[in-house]
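re: ur question from the group chat, yeah i did fold both. here u go
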Amino acid sequence: MSFTTDVKKEIISRGLGDDEQRGAAEKKSGLSAFVRTSGNFGVTDGSPNFFLVSETENVAEFFMSVFSETLGFELFISHATMDKMSGRDKLLLQCPASRASEALQALGLLKRSGDFREGIAASLIGTESRKIAYIQGAFLGGGSCTLPGDGAKTGYHLEIVFPQRKLARDFCALLDEFELIAKLTERKETSVVYIKSKEMISDFLAIVGAENSLRKFSQLVEKRDEANRNNRAQNCLASNADKAAIASVKQVVAIQKLIEKGELNDLSEELQRLAKARIEHRLMSMQELADYLKVSKSCLNHRMRRLLEMAEHIESDKNKKTDE
């Protein structure tokens, strides 16, 4: 079962609207959004008509019930088809042709002039509860939410597909009232409102009342964040280990030059001890080497720089003689 399915089931079981207000107005708002995101509109014999397409049986049943309760007559399943791309069944819900115009007007989808409305009717989102219901209905009709490891090629992604740009822009403005910042893009002949921020997706789930899905989402986010932190820590340790290994090799090469030139015995006791310790313990970090010699790391770095500088002088003298 996908995460999208979980969210939609939870919205359906909860009902349209907020916790305090779930009446007829909220049902109408949610139903209107569902019809806009899952509907196909046209004109038959000079009269407006529409049918709905749903890939989820329980969503179709839910809105058939809401449609009947809100408008007083029923949608009917005209037939079912198989989507070749997704492999899922699609249910086609038909409105009686004689009642289509009435339904569209009641849902704020048809103007008095008989033209289809492009944006969201103000009456559908006049209160916070109606706004929430509209967001819920839109997600149930055209929404999806994919998580990393849930068939998503990218990271967190929530989207709702709309048939028109004006409608999608109005919906973005609606989300903005809840401080949900969504982006808008075009996909073929549709407009897609999407959110990729995990914080925003979390807030969206809270607004639509999908509390169980929100807990699951939060647990996944925490688990992935912890894994990412561990990976960064491991990468940092590996990087530091690589740098330490490179530094150690450079130091050993420098000390070997001093040994080859017979200059090691002319060094102070402290530098001789450091040179011998580095040769014997090549894998030690500078901190480990400092602890081994019972000196501070700062002191050890100072002594090591002196050894490196002496080796550089030897190399410089060698190059001068070569040039001569």
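okk and heres the other one u asked abt
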Amino acid sequence: MRAVVIHAPKDLRIDTLPDVPPGDGEVKVRIGAGGICGSDLHYYHHGGFGTVRIRQPMTLGHEISGTIDEVGAGVSHLRPGMRVAVNPSRPCFECKYCHQGMHNQCLDMHFFGSAMRFPHVQGAFAESVTVDARQAVPVPDSLTLGEAAMAEPLSVCLHAAKQAGPLFGKRVLVTGCGPIGALAVLVARNAGAAELVATDVASQPLATARRLGATRAINPVEEPEALKAYAADKGTFDVLFEASGNEAALRGALDLVRPGGTVVQIGVGGDMKLPMNVIVAKEINLRGTFRFHAEFELAVEMMGKGLIDVKPVISDSIPFADAVKAFELASDRNRAMKVQLVF
């Protein structure tokens, strides 16, 4: 089979790899669509992020969907021909965190397309991938495979919303409107946010945020005064979803969060220096959010029922053989939102 493999920064190739038949409890999925994520772009441009670096060729990709081709022994709830979204997380189900229901914190996690382990965990931008049957979630006929591949990033935002607590009637700010920020807007709107303000420094993400239900979309560079009103009386917003991973965005947004408000940090851009005196004096709840687990099936269910429409987030679908073109396009925030590879 052919796969999209990173060998070094800017060295992305279409390689031929061995086809893997399913073993006991596994299924082989013929991939239909795969979304390019920010982590994929870090591998493409820089060979990794933080201390994580590519040490061997690695297939990229973890936002995927496809059709089951084969099932292994012991698999009775899935059959060939079923269309599925594939959860890229494979926790061990045995460590202390798995036993506590915190599968996203698994001590022996295997996550598609990750160089955090060595040998690396190969990704799923390939013509087929063989996975644990528990990772394959059937999708209804109402969803395209492109929509189904959005289950992974949507899961990230559903887990972030869980960290924030109830959003009904709340005033919500989303900073950074790339695919994750845009999906955070969708999730907050679905959860009943009364006011939903989005910020970004690029025009296309802001236009998408408006289409997805943001009550106001602001470019703080072009409209530096637009956010000042929200800082009145120690702040306006009940909840901040910080999706840019940018220190300046978070520091500026803290002035807009009311005392006792909640900040959920989704974006990861490296270590930050934070004004702890502000966080302490305003009694702000600062919460991290990392991946997901149960939210993956919930994401498929919500899309299937039409509760969340991710189609406006998908900007481009490009044949996987043109992966370099697709990665370059995905790197340009003024031209693209979510770029997907088609297999």
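fwiw on the second one: The chain is about 25% helix and 30% strand. The two ends are 11 Å apart (CA to CA). idk if thats what u expected
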